[in-house]
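User: I'm curious whether this sequence folds into something compact or stays loose and floppy. Could you predict its structure so I can see for myself?
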Amino acid sequence: MEQYNVTGMSCAACSSRVERVVKKVNGVTSCSVSLLTNSMSVEGSASSAEIIAAVEKAGYGASLKQPEKIINETSNDENILTDKETPILKRRLIFSLIFLAFLMYFSMGHMIGLPLPAFFEGNHVAQGLAQLLLAGIIMVINQKFFVSGFSSLLHLAPNMDTLVAMGSFSSFAWSVYVLFMITRPHTFTPHDFYFESAGMILTLITIGKMLEARSKGRTTDALKSLMKLAPKTANVIRNGQEFTVPIEQVQRGSVFVVRPGENIPVDGVILEGSTAVNESALTGESIPVDKAQGDSVSAATVNQSGYIKCEATRVGQDTTLSQIIKMVSDASATKAPIANIADKVCGVFVPAVIAIAVCVVAGWMFAGKPFGEALSYGIAVLVISCPCALGLATPVAIMVGNGVGAKNGILFKTASSLEQAGKINIAALDKTGTITSGEPKVTDILTAGDILEDELISLAYSLEMKSEHPLARAIAGYAKEQKIPAREVMEFQALPGNGLSAKLANGSSLVGGSMKFLAEKVSVDWRLAHEAERLAESGKTPLVFARDDELLGIIAVADTMKPDSREAVKELQELGVKVVMLTGDNERTAKAIGTEAGVDDVIAGVLPDGKESVIRELQAQGKVAMVGDGINDAPALTRADIGVAIGAGTDIAIDAADVVLMKSSLEDVPAAVRLSRATMRNIKQNLFWAFVYNVIGIPLAAGLWGLKLDPMFGAAAMSLSSFCVVTNALRLNLVNIRGRKS
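Assistant: Here's the prediction. I'll summarize afterward.
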């Protein structure tokens, strides 16, 4: 997918126009234009030159977006997210207000008792000329409306600027006509001038545009915050000396150092030292993570305590931070399916409004109204109509929703995935690494006879330390934590399917393995045999150890459940989502884990290539989200309606997913569902407001309810409509996605 910057768009009709013409280019398979970020994402085989040419032919500008600028140029004017529009609009507004004040003085000052200069008293032509000059200056200041509006009209693709330009120009042109006619006695009076409407319409729309631009700028705050995290320099070691270099000069394999309080410049692995790293910028988790030699670190995280020396593993566009920025940016450039409703309306909205305005003028003239009064109804219809509110309803909410997700370590790859996440009613959870930690731990220790617990652990550690089996590593890890030493062993032998054997320095034989294997070697007390059975039924693996003919005891090992898994399952169920656990374990172990986690259903004995077919079967019952972290989960993640990858999982699983959970916490799954549902509610509120505003506003401006709406009030209403939609979207920043309510 390639991204482009698009210039010259002023409303949803513009973005719809650009989207339509690009989709007609041979080789383009999909195109999505974002009015909010003035960007366009295109997929297909068409060349960038062909796409840019099509956009320019439609009357707009386009250029290929440079991803490195988005990420690296975070502090200069070339940053694509810098709000360049608000300062320009602010200057236009200030000058417009100054001249509008004089215009209102000459047009309406006498109505409220303000004295006019003697020269203008009773001199209607002079009053008209003064108003013409002042209105003309305001029109020149706001010429962008006319350039864009009439240019798009010539391209047969009228936009919001067309409505504003036509409304203001009609008021001005009619007033010029009245000015000429007023030189003849008993024709028109100064009350028939609409110069103040021409100037007021432009000024009020500019106010609305400025408020809208400022609010739109806030919708990208999350993305801007991520960009600001990107370090600018790094302290690298070259030829034994430390140098501070620009971040662009750090290459893969470079050795760099980070002191306490400094940001880690690129992704890497610790070569020397240990520390605690604050990863909240990437994961949303405020508790620092302990790091030691061999552990990985990520760019933009903060080294809080120790001095560390690291080797760069991913730099530039490959760092975790860069990937997050790209993911959030790409998601904001795509469209949610619900946006299609507004797009279809916007495609015909402006031409329909122009036709309605013409019919309103003709209708009132047919009803016997003077042309000037009939024209004012038509102008009111033009300036009250707002395609922007419709066009912004979806993208602003998507942008804010993605930002909220990013701040909480939940990354949606597309707008569609943000929409679909809230619609799931079945969550299929992989067991290992998702519900459980994926690393076996010692859970129970049962000694036999007079054997002490430390002695059992020491002997088991002596035997298991030479094995690479995950269960052996669990026992070795536990012994190290308890600081229990191992003993010297000889003649170590692994007995596949059974266990291990070795000899101690004093000649005693040491054996460990399954209960079935040990029962053939030594006499097993029935009580211990019963305990081993109980442990196995609870999903644990009992390992039995013996020295010579003496039974030492049992050490139970299990893949322990993550501390938040049970709570996450409960939250999903409260959201109306059925939770299913998928695992390759035997049914007895799987059911024990499933019962502990509180899932609704357990599907055990599923081979890696069978998960995809299970997802397909579940889809017959509703929309399915697959949550996993391994390579063998990738087909199932792709098959599901929504694939959710645990962030600590493999790159393949993350690439196959629609949603990535940076914290590797299962509780982020219900959080993602809540955020999706809150975003969809917000979009529907925006669309409702935008539709209702136009459905009520246009007939009101046309005078169908017996009311005469001054065009200036119509312009004010139009200015506020888009501002209200954007402001409503910003309320998503206040949503508590960690709560218990959907």
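Summary: Residues 68-78 have pLDDT under 50 and may be disordered. The longest strand covers residues 436-447.
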